[in-house]
Write a structure and sequence with these properties.
The protein has 514 residues and is mainly beta. It has 6 domains: 30 residues; 101 residues, Cupredoxins -  blue copper proteins (Immunoglobulin-like); 84 residues, Immunoglobulins (Immunoglobulin-like), CATH 2.60.40.10; 85 residues, Immunoglobulins (Immunoglobulin-like, Sandwich); 85 residues, Immunoglobulin-like (Sandwich), CATH 2.60.40.10; 69 residues, no CATH class. The protein contains 4 helices and 34 strands. The strands form 9 sheets. Strands 2-8-7-4-5 form a 5-stranded mixed sheet, with no helix packed on it. It has a 5-stranded mixed sheet with strand order 10-16-15-12-13, with no helix packed on it. α3 runs antiparallel to α4. The radius of gyration is 45 Å and the shape is elongated.
Length: 514
């Protein structure tokens, strides 16, 4: 090598050394953080696996780990993001860490920030992870030293035989959490051999009984007690050549002909006795494309349908196709039309149109909406609403109003209507053979209510007419209710007296078949 070449290289090296020294002098190393806060995540998209809730103000190292070591077995990415806009929170820390078990850091990331007193809101920005949210409260005090060791657990997975042994391989997954300074390391050893750093689930394939021990250490130096899982690995079974068994069950509301009304829902299930397990179920509707089954298949199109289905196991065996056929009919049109109800008043009338002695009100209701008539009701003057079963006779002298309505079985109620009429006296003495006893007596029971003249020569007992013919006991009681209601409205009886008379009528045997 020539001397000029050596000199040039030596000069270049000297320049690089000087630039390095100058850069070091201009940018001193940052001071160590006063505290470390650790967040962890796993396969769940509804919450972080572990989060700190309190901290003190000052330099802080943020650790976010979403790795196999924290229980992420699917490669699901998560973020740790500090909110910089929501009202009521500190906005002086900008942090948005994306972590995945398959990234260059194997899912473990850290950042140095400075926290100030107050509250910080953190969340995951990945769509569908909106429930992963929490708060960190920062105070000005000095944090208590972390003296609590992490919590560490182990789980074993794999295909098992009927005795519980794992066929060919067992996979051990270790999970560690720490609510204080955060998990620093996780270790494991197989069958008391030697401790190794844990970074991903451990597969044990040697045939026989095994014990895997594990432990975790946090950033404060606390180490958990040793945990362990024990299991047996057995020889894998022979190749599975038996296809799965697939079945379907169709459900829904059916009419008298067996057709499904509106919707038919088919649930598919499959079992595999060959040992490899069911890989997937597929279905084909009315000759369409085969589709992977995940949820019950709901069919709503009116007409006849054919649903083919099959299942495939993990060894590649596919069952014979099965089929379900069914017919869907349109559901009946909802009844939103209220019934039609009318009232007719009959009886002997005078020249002024008044009814002499009594008036009979008859209600007629029809329903054209399809659900059918449920009931009709009427209300005499200021009385209560009463279910209509037979024509209503009104004999109290004076003006009256009968209100009425009807409802169908779909819950539709017709608008309230009313009919008004007047009952007049029949001559100077409408009751020539008047019952003039001092008190109102019903079926031998003395109510002690004065048997006053109600007008036109008729007493209360005359209007009650207990000796008249009534088809049922209930009809007699309703008649007494109508009479007393009218007399209360006319000021002939008080509400209390009317109640006493109605109770006496209800307790009597009048109108009952003997």
């Amino acid at each position: 090598m020539s001397q000029p070449t050596v000199l040039r290289r030596a000069g270049s090296a000297l320049i690089v050394m000087l630039l390095t020294l100058l850069a070091g002098a201009a940018s001193p190393a940052p001071a160590a953080a006063a505290q470390t806060l650790t967040w962890t995540a796993d396969d769940d998209i509804t919450r972080y696996k572990s989060v700190p809730t309190t901290a003190v103000a000052g330099a802080t190292t943020i650790v976010f780990e979403n790795s196999a070591a924290t229980g992420n077995t699917t490669g699901m990415p998560h973020t740790l993001t500090f909110d910089t806009s929501a009202e009521g929170y500190n906005h002086d820390v900008t942090l948005n860490i994306l972590a995945s078990p398959f990234d260059t850091n194997n899912g473990r990331h850290q950042a140095n920030v400075t926290l100030t007193p107050g509250k910080y809101r953190f969340f995951c920005t990945i769509p569908g992870h909106s429930t992963m949210v929490g708060e960190l409260t920062v105070t000005t005090g000095t944090p208590d030293p972390d003296t609590t060791a992490p919590t560490v657990t182990g789980a074993v997975s794999g295909n098992r035989d009927s005795q519980g042994a794992y066929l060919g391989s067992a996979t051990v997954t270790v999970t560690a959490t720490d609510a204080g300074s955060g998990v620093r390391t996780v270790e494991y050893q197989i069958d008391d051999t030697s401790w190794q750093a844990y970074s991903a689930p451990v597969a044990v394939t040697a045939i026989g009984d095994h014990s895997v021990q594990f432990r975790a250490t946090d950033n404060a130096g606390n180490t958990s007690t040793v945990g362990s899982v024990s299991f047996r690995v057995a020889q894998a079974q022979q190749q599975d050549t038996t296809p799965p068994v697939v079945a379907g069950q169709t459900a829904g509301t059916r009419d008298s002909a067996g057709n499904y009304v509106g919707t038919a829902t088919t649930t598919l299930t499959a079992t595999d006795t060959g040992g490899s397990g069911v890989a997937r179920i597929e279905y084909q509707l009315d000759g369409g494309a085969w589709t992977t089954y995940s949820t019950p298949v709901a069919v709503t199109t009116v007409g006849a349908h054919m649903l083919h289905y099959r299942a495939t196991d993990n060894a590649g065996n596919t069952s014979a196709e099965q089929m379900a056929h069914f017919t869907i009919v349109a559901p009946p049109v909802e009844d939103t039309t209220p019934p039609q109800v009318t009232a007719a008043v009959t009886g002997e009338r005078d020249g002024s149109g008044n009814y002499l002695g009594s008036a009979t009100v008859t209600l007629t209701a029809t329903d054209t909406g399809g659900s059918g008539l449920k009931s009709s009701e009427y209300r005499l003057d200021d009385g209560a609403w009463t279910v209509y079963t037979t024509a209503v006779a009104v004999s109290a002298i004076g003006a009256h109003t009968v209100r009425y309505r009807a409802s169908d079985n779909a819950g539709n109620t017709a608008a309230e209507k009313s009919v008004t009429f007047t009952v007049a006296e029949r001559g100077a003495d409408a009751c020539p053979d008047s019952d003039t006893r001092d008190t109102v007596v019903i079926d031998g029971y003395d109510t002690r209510i004065p048997n006053t003249d109600t007008g036109n020569g008729c007493t209360v007992n005359d209007l009650i007419a207990e000796r008249a013919g009534y088809p049922t006991h209930a009809a007699f009681v309703r008649h007494v209710e109508n009479v007393t209601t009218t007399l209360v409205a006319a000021g002939k009886l008080t509400h209390r007296q009317a109640g006493t008379i109605v109770r006496a009528a209800a307790a009597s045997d009048k109108g009952e078949t003997r």
